[in-house]
Amino acid sequence: MVSVTKLGLAFGLAAALGLGVSLPAQAQKTKLTIYTALENDQLGPFKAAIETAVPDVEVVWVRDSTGVITARFLAEKDNPRADMVMGQAATSLLMFEKLGLLETYTPKGADALKSVFRDSSGDYTWTGMDAYLGVICYNPVEAGKAGTTPPKSWKDLLDAKYKGKLVMPHPASSGTGYLMVGAWLQMMGEAEGWKFMDGLHENMAVYTHSGSAPCVQAARGERVAGVALDMRGASEKTKGAPLEVIIPSEGTGWEMEASAIVKGTKNLEAAKKVADWSATKGANELYSKTYATVAMPDTGTAPPNYPANAEKLMIKNDLTWMAENRERILAEWSKRYESKAAPKN
C-alpha cells in the first residue's frame, strides 16, 4: 500500500509542475566552466565566495599551471570549452585579447581599482586581481655549508659556489618562471639578459614546473636557494623554515592574475555576474588572503615575513611586451636550457 505521505508528495510535485511553480534553485543553477591557475587550496574558498555572491551559478573549475592553461586555451580557440578564465597571468590574457578570444565587458566597479589592474586597451576585456613577485628563497643553513653569502644582486647567483644548488620554475610551465625571465631581459637588455641566464644555468640543479616548488625545496634544505613566488617564501618562513626571503637591489619581476569572459560563451549573463564580483571589495579581500598586492586600493595587509618595500621594488614591467614576445622568448629559453627541466608528471 502507498503511504499517504508519499501520495501527498507526489501530488504536490505534480501540482507544482502543472502550475509552473519553480523547483528549488539548485536545479536551475548555471554551470560556469572556469579555466584557472589558482592554487589548489584556493579553489574551495573561491568557489564558495562566488556561489554565495552569485547564487544562480555553479562554478566548475578546470585547474592547471599557467603554461598548461594557456596552451589548452589556445588549442581550443576554434571551439572554446571555457566560459571564463580566472586567476590566470595577465600576459596570457593579453595574448588571448589580441587573438580576439575574450568578450568585451567592463565589470561594475572596475573604475575603483588601481589603474595598472585595468585593461587599458580600446576594448576592455580583462580585469586584474592581484600581483605576484619573484623572490629568492635563501637557506642560510645550507648556504653556510656551501660557503655562500646572501645575494644582494641577481648576478650574485652566478657565483660558482652555487653550482648545482639553485632551482627556479620552468617559464613555459610557471607564471613565476616567465615573469622572472621577462624581468631579466627588460632590466638587463636582451643580450646581457641571455648572458646572465647562461651563467645562471650553469648553477641550476633543475627547472621545476611549479612556481612554489623552488621555495619549498630551499625550505627543506634540498637547495641553497630557489627563485620562487613571494608569498610562498613568506609562508614557508612563517611555518618555521630557515629561510631569508630576498628581493635583490635591482628590483624584481612581477605578474598579475586576472579574469576575463570567453568570447562566445553560451552563459554570458552568468559570466558577467561573476566578472562583476571579481572587481568587488569582498573579492579583493579574498585575494589578499593569498597575495600582498591586490587590485583594490587599501585592501589587505602584507603577511608575516613578507619582504619589506616589496611593492616599491617591482620593476616597471611591460606586460604587453611580455605577452607579444612570449613564444619567441620561450623558444629561445627552451633551446638553451631545456636539458635541466624536471620531468613532467
The top level CATH class name of the largest domain:
Alpha Beta
Share of residues in helices: 25-40%
- Give a count of the beta strands, DSSP E runs of length 2 or more: 10
Shape: globular
Shape-level CATH architecture of the largest domain: 3-Layer(aba) Sandwich
Query: What structural class results from the helix and strand content?
Result: alpha/beta
Determine the strand fraction and express it as a percent band: 15-25%
Can you tell me about this structure?
- Helix content is 39%, strand content 17%.
- It has 345 residues and is of the alpha/beta class.
- The chain has two domains: 24-131 and 255-294, D-Maltodextrin-Binding Protein, domain 2; 132-254 and 306-340, Periplasmic binding protein-like II (D-Maltodextrin-Binding Protein, domain 2).
- Strands 1, 2, 3, 4, 5, 6, 7, 8, 9 and 10 form a ten-stranded mixed beta sheet that branches.
- Helix 2 (40-53) links the parallel strand 1 (30-36) and strand 2 (57-63).
- Helix 6 packs across helix 7.
- The longest helix is centred in the N-terminal third of the chain and has 16 residues, at 4-19.
- The radius of gyration is 23 Å and the shape is globular.
- It starts with a helix and ends in an 8-residue tail after the last helix.
- Mean pLDDT is 91; it is low at 1-23.
In short:
The protein is of the alpha/beta class. 39% of the residues lie in helices and 17% in strands. The protein is globular and about 65 Å long.
Give keywords.
345 residues, alpha/beta, D-Maltodextrin-Binding Protein, domain 2, ten-stranded mixed sheet
